[in-house]
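Sorry, I am new here, but would you mind making up a protein's amino acid sequence and the tokens describing how it folds?
***
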Amino acid sequence: MFSFNKYYFGLSLLLFTTEVLIVLYAHDQIIRPYAGDFLIVIFLYCLIKTFLNAPAKPVAISVLLFYYLIEASQYFNLIHHLGMDNSKIAPLILGNSFSWVDMLAYTLGTGVIFMLQSSPVVSPPIR
């Protein structure tokens, strides 16, 4: 069940670096909000698969549901209800505004995971 996968570790590093570059240098209305949300789902999937030898579908669906839960917490203004309005870290972790477009970006990212995992060319060899 637990194992280290170099393939997914490399992808995780690449995606993490991309996310950091987006945060630092993309100050636009498309790349930062949408590409970042699209890639974060793929990043977390790869990070989990780095350490957990589990079937692709349950991991991808779990990651998608996790991000849906985060988005739902924004919809219900969870930060306010927890009394963390003045926190600088809470909005970074939970976000601060609900968006259907974010939900779409998460869903599309998960769709890409499913497409890539079903491709024998892109999928890592099973050991």
Q: What stands out?
A: DSSP finds six helices and no strands in the chain. Residues 6-117 form one domain.
